[in-house]
Amino acid sequence: MDTRNSPTTEPTWRDVLHWAREGNPPPPRRDARDEAAWRAALDPEAFRVLRGKGTEAPHSSPMCSLFEPGRYACAGCGTLLFDAASKYDSRSGWPSFTAPVAAGLVGYHADHRHGMTRIEATCQVCDGHLGHVFPDGPAPTGLRYCINALALRKLA
Questions:
Q1: In angstroms, how far is CA 65 from the centroid of its own chain?
Q2: For the chain, is the Cβ count within 10 Å smaller at the N or the C terminus?
Q3: pLDDT of residue 2
Q4: What does the angle CA 141 – CA 147 – CA 150 come to, to the nearest 5 degrees?
Q5: Catalytic residue among 64, 77, 126, 146
Q6: What span, in angstroms and rounded, lies between the C-alpha atoms of 74 and 126?
């Protein structure tokens, strides 16, 4: 059974690669603000990460060691992306998760910058750069969503 477009199935690395090549599941809505509106809404560092595909320094956020119940939303548009139940200590220096809360929220794109190929993770609603996803995470998905803390907002 092909589950690549099923919102109730946790993603696999095969799904991530498929979406990066063939296109992502549709988002629930779109936030298409222009650059000026994003600059007004975000502080300069969050703008650099979310809109400029930047990366914060590893271990620069206390969010890396925050392990308590809650959920995490996109710091740009507020879309719920991850649940703390899927967060784990990857020791990578960035908050890490095994899966988003639902399909269609995170987009996957081949990233050939810096002389390597990685899979970029973006917010599907506002196209904000979140970080990258790798196939070296723990069960149940085997994925590591390595996310910039500046791209997230912790919710209760």
A1: 18
A2: N
A3: 41
A4: 155
A5: 146
A6: 9
